[in-house]
Known about the structure:
Mean pLDDT of chain B: 92
CATH class of the largest domain in chain A: Alpha Beta
CATH topology of the largest domain in chain A: BirA Bifunctional Protein, domain 2
Shape of chain A: elongated
Radius of gyration of chain B: 19 Å
Structural class of chain B: alpha/beta
Strand order of the largest sheet of chain A: 1-5-6-12-11-10-7-9-8
Shape of chain B: elongated
Strand content of chain B: 25-35%
Radius of gyration of chain A: 26 Å
Number of helices of chain B: 8
Distance between the termini of chain B: 31 Å
Structural class of chain A: alpha/beta
Strand order of the largest sheet of chain B: 2-3-1-4-11-5
Oligomer: heterodimer
Number of helices of chain A: 12
Distance between the termini of chain A: 28 Å
Amino acid sequence: MSQTELKEEERVAFALRSLYRSYGYLPYKMNKFEAYDLYAFNKDFLVGDGVITFNDTDGKLLALKPDVTLSIIKNTTDESEKKVYYHENVYRISGETKQFKEIPQIGLERIGEVDAYVVYETITLALKSLLAISKDVALDISHLGVLSAVLDEVGAGDAFNKKARRLIADKNAHELKNLCAEYNVADDKVQMLIAVARAYGKPEKVLPVLQSFGLSKQGQSALADLQVVCTLLQNSEYADKINLDFSAQNDMKYYNGFVFKGFVAGVCEGVLSGGQYDKLMERMGRKSGAIGFAVYLDLLEHLKKNDSEYDLDALVLYDDKTPVQDLIATVQGAVERGEKVSAQKTLGKVRAKRVIDLTGGKTV
Amino acid sequence: MINVALPKGRLGEKIYEIFAAAGYECPSIKENNRKLIFENAEKGVRYFWVKPSDVSIYVERGAADIGVCGKDILVEYAPDVYELLDLKKGVCRMAVAAKKDFYDNGERTLKVATKFVNAAKSFYAKKGRAIDVIKLNGSIEIAPILGLSDVIVDIVETGTTLKENNLEVVETVFPISARLIANKASFKFKTEEIERLAEGIRALTDGETV
Lengths: 364, 210
């Protein structure tokens, strides 16, 4: 099978599997079903409420996986580092149609201590994954520790923080201003929040803005982590592909430290999403940290570059008067030349580059 | 080239004037014809007129990089887009209205007629009030008069239509005005162009009294 026969989704999946393998990630094959309890217990950490459930033959309630990460963590221990990649389908309610959708995902998870090197390697793997799809890509990086420190600094309470995070995710500075007025937030803090909502761009542009806030010790330490990774990335070949953006918070409550979201020109939404999820590990009784990401392969259908003009190279048209031997020889010859060929009695609606007409005993 | 989805109608024309004043004019748009797409290659902008309630769909799906639509549409459909600016045009509000003598004693399920089902549901869900939503597509004001519903949730501009039908506003659900929205992926790949345009428009609309 030639590379051109592969669908975009399959081509990317092949490329990414070998990429992850070369960085020491091992394949992880999962069962299609998972005990429903896992999701019921960790409902907060799922993207949406919808899970497709059904009963096993023994009456046990099972679910079609809405998420891969939970299943991977469930099977880890704190003793050793674990690096795995997966290529699985998940079942979620689509934001567009509000109906269940099968989403093919390929991604990786790294469980163990998350230091600057690990973050750097994971982010570069995310960038390499995007570049396997297209040349024209962008990766937004954010740090939820910095965002939390900014919100702590404002100190207007949980209800305010939840609304403010939503507005920052939408880059909605004007309503953020109104929200601050509603909660009597001091002017300097309002300016700080608006600066965060509007901050977008290269680290050298955004980091000084964040540093000027004079954040708490915790915030400073998160900011320092961000700075270290940004410096590593700025010195890499990917410097022009990354941006800092605090609207990148991702939907799931998984994440704490670094989060990132990847885009490919020509696809109208993010195709890659990931980050650090120590909080989820903690919730599941693990002490180690974790980081990972997933690429949503279904979105690659939006890239139209692989649409072919023809369904067939040759359509062999025959009827009852065509000598069967001629027909066999014609089809065989075309297949041997590497052509896509179909012998049919009618033309139908198929788009063929050329038609070989053997009807009425005609010969080639 | 930035693709801009504008809402067809009076508000859209007003919005276009702001874009033109910010340096993104496209004179062919003034020609009286049935064309829907207008381009000014020199200014790097392409406009198209679409149904106001469809603007967010064009932007969310990336057919337009940016667009202008009312807050009512953003609340109702919750599209996954950036909301960059409040243009402070087309100012009105989403409100609950009822017949002048209507009194809600909270005893039974409230019948609510509206075009904005999600907005109505979330408003009453926050209050914990049981409601029966009746989705209508127009002439909402007639519903309480005919006893189809107790109240309506609808856009109120001046309140004249309500008054003429012997209805009055009971409470405001949220204020509405036109918003500049952007597709999330477009924002990454056309950052400078979109930020420059938004900045130009912000300069023209910020601080303006409505």
